[in-house]
Design a protein that fits this description.
By secondary structure, this protein is an alpha/beta fold. The protein has 3 domains: about 230 residues, Rossmann fold (3-Layer(aba) Sandwich); about 100 residues, no CATH class; about 210 residues, Nucleotidyltransferase, domain 5, CATH 3.30.420. The protein has 16 helices and 25 strands. Strand 7 and strand 8 form a beta hairpin. It is globular. The N and C termini lie far apart (about 65 Å).
Amino acid sequence: MIRQWPEADLLELHHYRRVARPVRNANGDDLLEWTQQHRRWLGPERVFDLAHHAYLAALYGVQAGRAAVMKAAQMGASEWLISYALHACDQRNATALYVFPTDAHVSDFSAARLGPAIEASPYLESIIVDGRALGGKRGSDRVTLKRVRNRFLYFRGGQVKPDGSAPQLKSIDADVLILDELDELDPRAPAIAAKRLGHSSIGEMRLVSTPSYPGGGIHAEWQESDQRLWHVRCGACGLRQPLAIEQAVTEWDDLGRPRAWRGQAEGRAWAACVKCGSELDRLGPGEWVAAHPGRETAGFHLSKLFSARTPLLDVVRALDTTDETKRREAFNQDLGLPYRPRGGGLDGGALDDCRREYGHGPRPEGSRGAACYMGVDVGKVLHVVIRAAADKETGERRQLFAGEVSWDGLALLMRQYGPRAAVMDALPETTKAREFQRQFARGRVWLAYYPAQASGSKREDFAAWDWAQSKVDVDRTRSLDETLARFTDGSNTLPANARDIRDYYAHLTATVRVIEKDARGQEAARYVETGPDHFAHAENYCTVAAECPAAAGWARGAAG
């Protein structure tokens, strides 16, 4: 039977499992003496302390079926997840699946967090079952699997193979699912892991991560949640308010660095009340206030602005940099906020500048006579872009079509527009893509792989064409550089009603170019997706198609 614990009891049960025993006092009265057995210690000599983490109490008490926590680093969320998982197994007779980005994360977490927790608690040691201690009853005490009483706690990496499978997540019937560091997970892993809850009457999910870029990962989950912010009360005027970095920084320079802040003259930083300007006690009593009460997902934003471990001046100083990597880390790790690099992608204004007074459809001179190219991003639906060849005088590449179609609809577009070359995603629907390819003459339809998915090209061009296999290996960063450049220089134009194309603007602006340091400390450019970006890749494949070296032959009637 699944017991629903009152909210007041959940905090206690997560960490303190109080046990009563009868005692008699000096007056001869029979009393109950309460002792604390359950996870009082986070590890050896590390006591569980809410006095300096008051904001965590609501997390321990949350009973929503789905909770999303967008957090700064080192805010205590991982300890909460450990307690949540152990509590589910111990007190709710539930099986828990805890997913990390990689297997290496599993090993590190098990050794550094879970091991010390068990070592510090005789109670936890008593419920983590060793099969030998039960006369041969099957138990487990491995890195990836813990038996807690009669239930199991699974730890798994979230890697997904190129074919879309994740065998390490199979054969697990879970009741609660934890996705830790969601933004570092393979984007396909959450949906695969969520299927493990399919037969559970509990079916709870906890998603936790430091954010990365706007609109994706934990930030997307947060946006769909009830968006709870930690509010503190001004001691002077009584206004209840959330904390933001703008309450400390009073002036920013043109590069987005703090130029002046409150407390600067005294060598410190402090946050001011938005109403009366008095100094706020950012570490004082607070409460969570939901911006959208009633939404099913409980969302929490944890920031170092209310962390006792981090001086506010350290947060301000971390923002005083033009290094994009360091600046992103300050937003993500200190403020718990997503960061969009300056000038790292297209925006709505840039796309509006590409609009011209024309509409979609084959060029007036006829579909077969007009040179055009097609790009197809393959997913649950097909996102397609068709563009005319560059005008010899102006260099303009008109967009002739952009939309979502089925496989049958894609074949119809091929007949209607007659593109000289079509480049489409080889993954994840390789079989269907090959079947579609075989409907047309060799060299008409090409299957594309990005270097991370297949062997990349060492050529100077951003695409390497393989005639024998009718495939093309595409340098993802360099090809996207070219595609976005065609929008910023105005050569890729859009029809007048481009804003009416469903999801087009959102997808094109979701692809962001960032400069990050690799494992060797060298800076390298790459593109990240801050949300669904299917049309961006359809445009990119269209750019690649226009570079097909054999396409000129089809203009002379060689195509089928």
